[in-house]
Amino acid sequence: MNTIEASTCLPQNLLLIRVCEESQLPPVLNLMQQLRPHLTDVSSWIAYWKRASQAGYRLWSLKKADQFVALASYRIAENLVHGHYLYVEDLVTDQAERGVGYGQIMMEMLKQEALEQGCGKIVLDTGLNNALAHRFYYRQGLLASSLRFNQVLST
Predict the structure, then answer these.
(1) Can you tell me the distance from the alpha carbon of 47 to that of 57, in angstroms, rounded to the nearest whole number?
(2) What is residue 112's DSSP assignment?
(3) What is the Cα Rg of the chain in Å?
(4) What is the rounded CA–CA span in Å between residue 52 and residue 74?
């Protein structure tokens, strides 16, 4: 299903829309840039979406009237650490709309999708300095269970 109507499970005036066509990407770029400011132009955004979609990337947006107010992207994956799981790649609510409950709506959609896909858990990463995100995730029932290390490699 590509659109979940407001009458099914969302508050009135909201639509949950699966972004599955290139033409749907420019209107949600502003939201993605709030989370990923290094994404500076629509062509880079489209190129990433095309590559990532081939590897299982899925993107949903929440629309209120004519404005996109939140988005979430994820992949279904499996490894020995987590088993079969849903990995949340991006989750953002428009800065002007935070605190309204849109992030919670997106998390509920992700949890439902994880259950439908037979996933045993939801996994996501967030920066150590992002205390507001940490509080939000704790309220959504997610717990910090590991610390990720990485190293930027120069070529």
Answers:
(1) 13
(2) H
(3) 16
(4) 10
